[in-house]
Amino acid sequence: MTHNWNDKNGAFHPISAMDFLPREELRRIQSQRLKELVKLAYENVPLHRSRMNELGVTPSDIRGIDDISKLPFTQKSDLRDTYPYGLFAVDMGEVIRLHASSGTTGKPIVVGYTEDDMEVWETSVMRCLLMFGVQRGDLLQNCFGYGLFTGGMGLHGGAQRLGCTVIPASGGNTERQLMIMRDFGSTAVSCTPSYFIHMIEEAKKYDVDMKSLPLKFGIFGAEPWSEHMREYIEANTNVRAFDIYGLSEIAGPGVGGECLEHNGIHIFEDNFYPEIVDPETGEPLPDGEEGELVITTLAKRAMPILRYRTHDITSIMSEKCACGRTVRRIRRIGRRSDDMFIIRGVNVFPSQIEVALMRVEECTPHYHIILEREKDLDTVTVEVEVNDDCYIDSIAQMDALRKKIQTSISNITGIRMTVKIVEPNSIPRSEGKAKRVIDKRKI
Amino acid sequence: MKIKQVSIFLENTPGHLEKACKALADGGINIQTITIAETKDYGIVRTVVDKPEEAVEILKNAGMVAKIVDVLAIEVDDTPGALLAILNKTAEAGVNIEYMYALTHPFKDKPVMVMAFKDVDAAEKIFK
């Protein structure tokens, strides 16, 4: 076994012990925690209680972790419908932190944490960092956005608890990020992989030699990314790129991460229990089979979540990992049960385009994405509708708006897309969830 | 003199200008002059009409984006150097002309140029 999870003195870090529990011991803990979770959710959250009642399940029916499939699912829409505090199971006096994430339909979802929940979250982040080999003494430049988004504060809390020197750089301002990286001597960076690729490209412009920096660890998450992107990052820097998995609804970053084997993401299943289900029928699938990832928060109290449908398509790898950890892995997220698309090896979510558009004040929410293939090269065109607020009687200013949208999109996705401003009502409206992606490629 | 111009956003594809003009014709709007600034994907159509407010309403009801922009209508003598004299004034005042075009229906018998400025009120003062 390698010793990269050791602390600076070479001793095994006790926080990582939970990663290596014998399976039977782990299952005993999971069973115990599930029983407590269900009781808490049933007694305090009307939605969970009524859903369980509909299925004819009571807390006493849950006698162990194998009974988890008897429980009802929780969907993202449930978090939206109960906005802001409808799924909270404790008194507000016990909630010490709130976060929120933007939804695709306007209203955000709100998540809350008790003091114990914060400890669960931050120690999960610590376990991730230890798995990557990050130690006390490392300088972590945290470029995840600070604020309501869980990325910034989540990474920050875990890294600080581990004893890293945290640089709360937050997102954006690439020139300054590169200056900090070089002048402060950051040894680790955390951000979305697409943003780091953007940094690599910008570094050439600002004459920063990425390969001469002391930067060793890249902690990348908040969006799916490909082996392609890993190869690009590792070829152009001295960084070893690690995937950190998480989602706000469950905790934030740190639900799982890659070990040095780079073969799947270990899920800290003492805290976050993973299942795979058929995305159509919701039927549980055995380990190894591909389906939708479902997660239950075994150790969170402020907002206990039963069987959350992540829409991430993956499979559980139950074989023993060469690193020695007993917590199971999932394959890296390759696709979604929703309308993510892959362009030039990069995964793009319509929601990323949406966020990019939202950052441009003048922009309308009506857009769609057209994928085409010209001479073996994929092209993306984002069509955005003009409206009364953003229309200016000037070609120069309309073109400036178009370029602003283009830059915003490339900052988030790392991809330069063609942006077209089109007439109002020219993009088809649909009932329910809009169809954002029109794929005209013949592959 | 300050006049109201109607500015319309249209895609640069066949049939779109026709659709806008049809809406105006059906609404009984008389176009006095019309000009197009085009890009690859879209164009900005600028027109002077007899009833600008009504024209914008009609275009909006037809699902288009249109707005009223104040511009200056300036008489220019039909002699060599007449336009130059006007440009001398704007250059001296440091005022930039965003775009200009001719009005097909002069007010009296002199040609009239329509000029657009960022700050139309400031520009108007130059010509008083």
Number of domains of chain B: 2
CATH architecture of the largest domain in chain A: 3-Layer(aba) Sandwich
Question: What can be said about the biggest beta sheet of chain B?
Answer: 6 strands, antiparallel
Which CATH class of the largest domain in chain B applies here?
Alpha Beta
Structural class of chain B: alpha+beta
What's the order of the H and E elements of chain B? EHEEHEHEEH
Kindly report the average pLDDT value of chain B: 93
- Biggest sheet strand order of chain B reads 2-3-1-4-6-5
The main pleated sheet of chain A reads as: 9 strands, mixed
Instruction: Assess the beta-strand content of chain B as a share of residues.
Output: 35-45%
Distance between the termini of chain A: 44 Å
Major sheet: arrangement of strands of chain A: 4-3-5-6-7-8-9-15-14
Gyration radius of chain B, rounded: 16 Å
Write the layout of secondary structure elements.
The complex is a heterodimer of chains A (443) and B (128).
Chain A (H helix, E strand, L loop, with lengths): L22 H22 L1 H10 L20 H6 L13 E7 L7 E6 H18 L6 E4 L7 H13 L2 E3 L6 H12 L2 E4 L1 H13 L11 E4 L6 H10 L3 E8 L4 E7 L6 E3 L4 E6 L6 E2 L5 E7 L10 E7 L1 E2 L11 E2 L4 E2 L4 E3 L2 E3 L1 H10 L7 E8 L2 E9 L9 H19 L4 E5 L14 E3 L4
Parallel strand pairs in A: 3-4, 3-5, 5-6, 6-7, 19-22, 20-21
Antiparallel strand pairs in A: 1-2, 7-8, 8-9, 9-15, 10-11, 10-12, 12-13, 13-16, 14-15, 17-18, 19-20
Helix pairs in contact in A: 1-2, 4-5, 6-7, 7-8, 9-10
Chain B lengths: L1 E10 L4 H11 L4 E8 L3 E8 L2 H10 L3 E11 L6 H12 L3 E7 L8 E6 L2 H7 L2
Antiparallel strand pairs in B: 1-3, 1-4, 2-3, 4-6, 5-6
